[in-house]
Design brief:
The structure holds two protein chains of two kinds. Chain A is mainly alpha-helical. In chain A, 71% of the residues lie in helices and 3% in strands. In chain A, helix 5 runs antiparallel to helix 6, helix 7 runs antiparallel to helix 8 and helix 8 crosses helix 9. Chain A is flat and about 65 Å long. The termini of chain A are far apart. Chain B has eight helices and two strands; from the N terminus they run ααββαααααα. Chain B has a two-stranded antiparallel ribbon with strand order 1-2. The longest helix of chain B is centred in the C-terminal third of the chain and has 33 residues. Chains A and B meet through helix 2, helix 5, helix 6, helix 8 and helix 9 of A and helix 1, helix 2, strand 1, helix 4 and helix 7 of B.
Chain lengths: 256, 239
């Protein structure tokens, strides 16, 4: 557990982006995504500019593009939706390779594909450069309500424990000859879920009481909150990303 | 197996509608925060975190429907509502969604309001209302509790999926016209299966907890005490 607080998507590097205070990265991510989403879908060059921005940040964080692209397969269901839209859409139609496609649907599909992909890539960059502990810390510094950060802290802390527990139980089940593949075999899985919950809760209860007895008051330790908070120059860096993103969005409105 | 995104991504729903639902989500969360703070005592705080972690973990285990080709995962709203109450339950699901959007790229950052409205607010509210209703009607036995959890979770999932259909009709990237009914049908169809799986898992989990630690089940604690509960409780649970 010593190496604990990372998660599956974290890439342990020592770069300027990794050292950036988490709250700065969260703000930059949100501003960037909003800029992407409000951009008019007809302005193709703007999306190219956003892509350059993301790739630049990835290069700065030494996150390989291959890594980003394989992880972004997560949005596959929406790619399917995007590909289906040209067939489902209404209005004016064009014929392409013998297929009758809706112009509105083509734009809609492109809209989902471009904005979805850019959003996924930006989130993956945050994930690759920020540990979960830092993420909660960032949210706390951004004045996210304490109840939420408290739930998030516990959630992230037990996530790996739960995952490992679930993996052990799955291996135990498979090694006993069970191989649930179909709906009517769900019972074994469901029973395992019930057991997993109780095991996890009782572990969590013990840990929580131990934390309380060591002075846990529902907040992060004071030292964490002040140590490594964003400096003015780091905020400038984040504002830089925001300004560039905003400039692209504005330019996209004006120039077309 | 590769995890697939289940939550609404950026750009699916247009800006103004996404922003409007962002406001709805913020308003809903503010109410949940105000009401949930009273519920969140020493014992509920770690339980809430664990419920959130549990929902997160179970969402990673895709369960197959028919074959591995179509798979779904838990939404968890009803489960959370039964175990920690509707207010804290909605907060738990929201935390899961926020963290998934920020670090797991599941669900767009700008679509967070939509996802929170569907899964944390609509799903949890619909599920919990069913729980309250059914617990009063059904016999207070293990079977009654299991049926309650199953039906409530199923209703919660369907309600959440219809939330998406409504949002897409309001501000979808494409005006589907009459095809919106096709979308509604597809969503209802797939989510019926997801809901059945969700219902089974919710029922089994709630039952497992109610058998050994009935003190942890919020929905049972809040019931008006008519007769002593008939739930079979083994003596001396773990404390």
């Amino acid at each position: 557990m010593g190496a604990g607080h990372a998660h599956g998507l974290y890439l342990d590097r020592d770069t300027a982006v990794h050292r950036l205070a988490p709250e700065v990265k969260i703000v930059a991510l949100v501003v960037f995504t909003v800029a992407v989403v409000i951009t008019r879908r007809e302005v193709f060059w703007a999306f190219g500019a956003y892509a350059v921005l993301v790739i630049g940040a990835a290069a700065l964080a030494r996150v390989p593009l291959r890594w980003l692209l394989t992880r972004s397969l997560i949005e596959l269901p929406f790619v399917v939706l995007a590909l289906a839209l040209p067939f489902l859409g209404q209005g004016e139609r064009v014929t392409w390779l013998g297929l009758s496609l809706s112009v509105e649907g083509l734009y809609g599909g492109w809209n989902i594909l471009a904005k979805g992909t850019l959003g996924v890539l930006a989130s993956l960059l945050l994930a690759a450069t920020t540990t979960t502990r830092d993420l909660v810390l960032g949210l706390d510094r951004l004045h996210c309500p304490q109840v939420l950060t408290q739930i998030a802290t516990f959630m992230l802390r037990y996530l790996e424990v739960l995952g490992d527990e679930a993996r052990r139980m799955r291996i135990a089940r498979i090694s006993r000859g069970d191989d649930p593949r179909f709906l009517w075999q769900l019972k074994g899985f469901a029973a395992g879920v019930g057991a997993l919950f109780l095991r996890a809760f009782e572990r969590g209860e013990r840990v929580y009481l131990a934390m309380l007895s060591r002075g846990y008051s529902g907040r992060m330790p004071e030292a964490w909150r002040t140590d490594g908070a964003a400096t003015a120059s780091q905020w400038v860096a984040a504002v830089g990303v925001a300004v560039v993103g905003g400039a692209i969005a504005t330019a996209a409105f004006v120039i077309r | 197996m590769q995890n697939l995104a289940m939550h609404i991504a950026n750009g699916i729903i247009d800006g103004p509608v996404a922003a409007a639902f962002g406001a709805v989500a913020l308003f809903g969360l503010a109410i949940c925060l105000a009401r949930g703070r009273g519920d969140l005592d020493d014992r509920l705080a770690p339980l809430a975190g664990l419920v959130a972690a549990f929902i997160f973990a179970v969402q990673m285990l895709n369960f197959p429907i028919f074959t591995a080709a179509v798979s779904g995962h838990l939404l968890g709203g009803t489960l959370a509502a039964i175990l920690v109450g509707p207010w804290v339950g909605a907060l738990c699901v929201s935390v899961v969604l926020i963290v998934q959007a920020l670090v797991f790229a599941d669900g767009g950052v700008t679509a967070l309001g939509l996802n929170i409205t569907n899964m944390a607010l609509i799903g949890t509210a619909a599920g919990y209302l069913m729980v309250v209703l059914l617990l009063r009607v059904l016999p207070r036995t293990n079977t009654g509790l299991a049926v309650t959890a199953f039906v409530a979770a199923l209703v919660g999932v369907l309600a959440a999926s219809m939330g998406f259909v409504a949002e897409f009709a309001l501000g979808g990237a494409v005006d589907l016209g009459n095809s919106i009914s096709i979308l509604a049908g597809t969503m209802a169809g797939t989510h019926l299966f997801i809901g059945i799986g969700e219902g089974l898992i919710t029922a089994v989990t709630v039952l497992a907890v109610a058998r050994t630690r009935p003190d942890l089940v919020y929905a049972l604690r809040k019931l008006p005490a008519k007769t002593p509960a008939k739930l079979v409780v083994p003596a001396g649970g773990v404390t």
